[in-house]
Automatic annotation (TrEMBL):
InterPro entries per record: Integrase_H2C2, Retrovirus_Pol_polyprotein
Domain of life from the UniProt record: Eukaryota
Species name: Austropuccinia psidii MF-1
Boundaries of every Integrase zinc-binding domain copy: 66-121
Pfam families: Integrase_H2C2
Annotated protein name in UniProt: Integrase zinc-binding domain-containing protein
């Protein structure tokens, strides 16, 4: 719980969740999307861990800002899991962790990941120019395939 308190929005959220009664003063200090999700009762606290729930999904751990890069590395770069595509990495993160704007940060991380950029780069031209083929004189002399 100590690391959550270091982040301003998480600290305010912790105070709100630990109080018995609503505090409009504290609520007014929350920024979006924290405020919207708090008023929609998407956050809750269990055993010192802060959780977030999207619609009817399972509860996801709210990730502290310092740990986001570790999560992205673990779910995208980890060699033993295979190098994941952006869609597969999104699936894995979406089922485990939450932080504001996580999808945008994940896309940016993958788009700037050097190994991905090298692997996805087109090398040379894909197709050659059409070539004229002389009419064959005998059957099966020339075979073409599309």
């Amino acid at each position: 719980m100590m690391t959550y308190a270091k982040h301003k929005q998480c600290g305010i959220l912790l105070q709100l969740l630990q109080q018995k009664y609503r505090s409009p003063e504290l609520e007014s200090q929350l920024e979006e999307p924290w405020l919207r999700d708090y008023t929609d009762n998407r956050f809750f606290l269990i055993d010192g861990l802060l959780y977030h729930r999207e619609n009817h999904t399972s509860a996801l751990t709210v990730v502290y800002r310092d740990h986001i890069s570790l999560i992205l590395q673990e779910f995208h770069d980890f060699l033993y899991m295979g190098h994941m595509s952006e869609d597969r990495t999104k699936e894995r993160v979406a089922s485990t962790a939450w932080w504001p704007k996580w999808e945008e940060e994940l896309s940016e991380y993958i788009s700037t990941f050097e190994r991905c950029q090298k692997a996805n780069k087109n090398h040379g031209s894909k197709y050659g120019l059409p070539q004229h083929i002389e009419e064959p004189k005998h059957p099966w002399e020339t075979i073409n395939m599309d």
